[in-house]
Amino acid sequence: MRVWRSAAALRRALAPARRRGWSIGFVPTMGALHAGHASLMRRARKSCNLVVVSIFVNPTQFGPREDFSEYPRTLARDLALCRREKVDFVYVPRAGEVYRPGADTVVVQTRLPRHLCGPYRPGHFRGVMTVVAKLFNRVQPTAAFFGAKDYQQAAIIQRMARDLDFPVRIVVCPTVREKDGLALSSRNAYLTPEERRRALALVHALRLGRRLIALGEKRAVRIEAGMRRLIWSEAPGASIDYASVVDAGTLEPVRRARGKMLLALAVRIGKTRLIDNCVVSPSRKNLSS
Ligand code: PAF
Fold first, then answer.
1. Is the C-alpha dihedral spanning 42, 47, 52, 58 positive or negative?
2. Is the Cβ–Cβ distance between 222 and 257 less than 8 Å?
């Protein structure tokens, strides 16, 4: 495994693979890697000849009151995980290498970012799209791998790749969960043991929403209210940004359960903002999970 600190060195290292027509799998990350990232790397390893991971805590996707400076930075452990997953190249850009002084160009999208996390994190998706576009240009991957836990992010990147003609296949991989159901996230590291216990309210609320739909509840407001009530009872004091039923394609709120929907949650447990989601359609199959 080789670690590259500059885009020029990375480009030179990738050139022979490109000449041979090898497929390049890319997993962009902000580090603090966990089993969820490892599953993306494994998926990339399975389907591509060469695997590149980037580790860059992207300042432009954090709001002024968000956790950029406290975001966990665990490079030595991250590199060990990449080595275990047989990653070929890790791109860890030096500070100042990604955004050059005077940079003034950003990527924006108008529809998908209007929903769910968008209003609560102004500018977040602009920062994500801009950095991912830059990373796509630097790595020029055949396929890029994202987790379904960040469903809205994955949908926005899919749309960006299509709209801006990036010749990359976007692969969205299932959320990896702890045994008790908690979705893996780098931010779980902030939770105290008590908060970790309360955080299970998210997956329990999603299960409840899924069950209500399977039992025939059609009114989105009822499903949303049920999920909220469960979160407040299992995680007293939690602050809910949203507990929403939306169309899985457009992310627009739905009034009645119909077609493929996303149940999506963003909840602050203590100081930690957690998100989780599941895709669901009105069928009795939802009763089994
Ligand atoms: O999901 C993340 O870790 C980040 O948003 C990403 C895609 C690496 C962009 O900084």
1. negative
2. no
The one-digit pLDDT tens for each residue of the chain (289 residues) are 999 999 999 999 999 999 999 999 999 999 999 999 999 999 999 999 999 999 999 999 999 999 999 999 999 999 999 999 999 999 999 879 999 999 999 999 999 999 999 999 999 999 999 999 999 999 999 999 999 999 999 999 999 999 999 999 999 999 999 999 999 999 999 999 999 999 999 999 999 999 999 999 999 999 999 999 999 999 999 999 999 999 999 999 999 999 999 999 999 999 999 999 999 998 756 554 4
Residue 148 Cα to ligand 1 midpoint, Å, equals: 12
Atom of ligand 1 nearest to the CA of 56: 10
The second-level CATH assignment, the architecture, of 186-280 is 2-Layer Sandwich (3.30)
Residue closest via CA to ligand 1's atom 3 equals: 29
Active site (annotated) includes residue 124: no
Per-domain residue ranges for the chain? 2-173, 186-280
Cα separations (Å) of 107 from 96, 123, 158, 275?
19, 10, 13, 24
